[in-house]
Amino acid sequence: NAGVMQNPRHLVRRRGQEARLRCSPMKGHSHVYWYRQLPEEGLKFMVYLQKENIIDESGMPKERFSAEFPKEGPSILRIQQVVRGDSAAYFCASSPSVGQGTDTQYFGPGTRLTVL
Amino acid sequence: DQQVKQNSPSLSVQEGRISILNCDYTNSMFDYFLWYKKYPAEGPTFLISISSIKDKNEDGRFTVFLNKSAKHLSLHIVPSQPGDSAVYFCAASLGGTSYGKLTFGQGTILTVHP
Q: Chain B partners of A56 at a C-beta cutoff of 8 Å?
């Protein structure tokens, strides 16, 4: 029973390029979350998606960042025109359902983005 | 606005002793709390959780205590083992339409010495 899969594990981009981060949730999970961890900080919520729907994007920067979770395939976090401040670890988590606030999120290994 | 705070950046404990990690929160609407453990270059691993209707939850060597009046929770690990050395994050979630979003503390680095 595979856990949450993220690829690539490491991604290097030059300033101005695009970064695409992929996340495949655990089998049977239909809810995906993206978090970002800057150096020396805790994880910060970015976006919560269900299949074909963005439920909560209150943590997403207003520009350059977008996320999707299509009917088929992995969830994608896209960062356009990357800047050095985007360098961070990006974690994806998944859960089977949401109800009564008791569902636990299970995390992938993360993608470490370095912007040169 | 740091709604979940872990005021101790690090904790050092001898093997076999108890480790106590603390977490404070400011938002009284949080109704579910979780602890995660994280090794370098890996994702957080779920340890234990507690609902706001309880004040204690136990799972093996791990016990989480919740004091709602003080807006404080703690994770007790006993006995501590060298393999427990990692960064520990507490997290909290709201109910209602904000289901799903976790708010994390900054983390506490636990070192267990043999």
A: 98, 100-101
